[in-house]
Amino acid sequence: MKVAIFPGTFDPLTRGHMDLIKRGRALFDQLAVAVMTNSTKHPLFSIDERVAQIKEATSGMNNVSVITASGLTVKLMNKIGADYLMRGLRNTTDFQYERDIAAMNKFLDKDVETVFFLADPKYQHLSSSLLKEVAMNGGDISEYLPGQINEALNERLKERKLKLVTEQNEQTETKHK
Question: d(Cα 171, Cα 176) in Å, to the nearest integer?
Answer without folding.
Answer: 9
